[in-house]
Amino acid sequence: MRGPGAGAAREGRGGGGMEAPGAAGLGVADPQLQRFIEVETQKQRFQQLVHQMTELCWEKCMDKPGPKLDSRAETCFVNCVERFIDTSQFILNRLEQTQKSKSAFSESLSD
């Protein structure tokens, strides 16, 4: 079921020449708009990643919140963030390798 504003974007596309941002997958004609949508999507993903990392490391490292971090909690946060970044980078590299190998495999089939 769609929310209250779901139909508004569709109705607003009539004669403006610019498609609604929700239409990114429907072949947005304006390259500037498409680039804007890509940048905003990347920003959103980054914000989600920071939120996940903060939540994970907070749960792991904060026993009892106080006016300042003790050295143990600070060290824990630093290690947690570094491992989170390492893990995220590893996953991205792995996905990239998988994509490249799939592309190479499909190209070899078409030859």
Summed up:
This protein is 69% helix and 0% strand.
Helix content: 55-70%
Tell me, briefly, the overall form. elongated
- Biggest pleated-sheet summary: none
Q: Uncertain segments of ≥5 residues (pLDDT<50)?
A: 1-21
Estimated share of beta-strand residues = under 5%
- Helix and strand content put the structural class at mainly alpha
Rg from alpha-carbon coordinates: 22 Å
Mean pLDDT: 77
Number of helices: 3
Oligomer: single chain
The topology string of helices and strands comes to HHH
Distance N to C terminus: 45 Å
Beta-strand segment tally = 0
Describe the structure.
The relative contact order is 0.06. Helix 2 (31-61) packs across helix 3 (71-110). The protein is elongated and about 65 Å long. The termini are far apart. It has helices spanning 6-11, 31-61, 71-110. The chain is mainly alpha-helical.
Structural key phrases:
elongated; 111 residues; mainly alpha; disordered N terminus
